Amino acid sequence: MSENAKKAVVLVSGGMDSAVVLAMARERGFALHALSVSYGQRHTSELDAAARVAAQLGAVAHKVVNVDLRSIGGSALTDDIEVPEAGGAGIPVTYVPARNTIMLSVALGWAEVLGADDLFCGVNAVDYSGYPDCRPAFIAAFEQLANLATKAGVEGHRLRIHAPLIDLTKADIVREGLRLGVDFAATVSCYRADAEGRACGHCDACHLRAEGFAAAGAADPTRYVDAG
């Protein structure tokens, strides 16, 4: 990595999508500053995965910021609400109120401190689970906000929010990750993963992940609680 490489802040959850985004930002020549958010999610194995992925893909820094979204609840991921089996219409109970807005805001703050003009996130509007903060309109609106609400933006440093997976299918994401050498075995996608990062195999996230590997014709390295 060149000492003169442009800096980018990349949101890294520990899941497969954000791992691919981190690899894409690396391919574009950015100095990677990985950011994970401990927001009171049901398990911390995804944060362990984020640290693994950041190290494997050569991030120059990996920061974990604590934001207590469990204190407001309202989601099966941050409250005493059962994570449902895959399926169902409408916005699911795994939607975390304001999560992506808050995460991007934290990333924006760190980017200003670093002098980085580029932020990357792994939102996806094709295979997503119905979350309103994974749509192109949200990303465009947040980029506009970033340039209106920051010292960097008003002083002429154009801030860019990159969401390179937004129009890709899960199979496309798998293929891109394999091309870039992402170790998908290091990632954790499951909403109900155990302390070792093993997946339940039944939630929306598990089904989307499995379908993506199947559609891509690639071996799925996911470890399940029930190996049978």
Automatic annotation (TrEMBL):
Keywords: ATP-binding, Ligase, Metal-binding, Nucleotide-binding, Queuosine biosynthesis, Zinc. Coiled coil: none annotated. Pathway: Purine metabolism; 7-cyano-7-deazaguanine biosynthesis. Pfam families: QueC. It catalyses: 7-carboxy-7-carbaguanine + NH4(+) + 2 ATP = 7-cyano-7-carbaguanine + 2 AMP + 2 diphosphate + 2 H(+). ATP binds at V12, S13, G14, G15, M16, D17, S18, A19, V20, V21, L22. GO terms for molecular function: ligase activity. Zn(2+) binds at C190, C200, C203, C206. Binds 1 zinc ion per subunit. Catalyzes the ATP-dependent conversion of 7-carboxy-7-deazaguanine (CDG) to 7-cyano-7-deazaguanine (preQ(0)). NCBIfam families: 7-cyano-7-deazaguanine synthase QueC. Belongs to the QueC family. This is 7-cyano-7-deazaguanine synthase. It comes from Pseudomarimonas salicorniae.
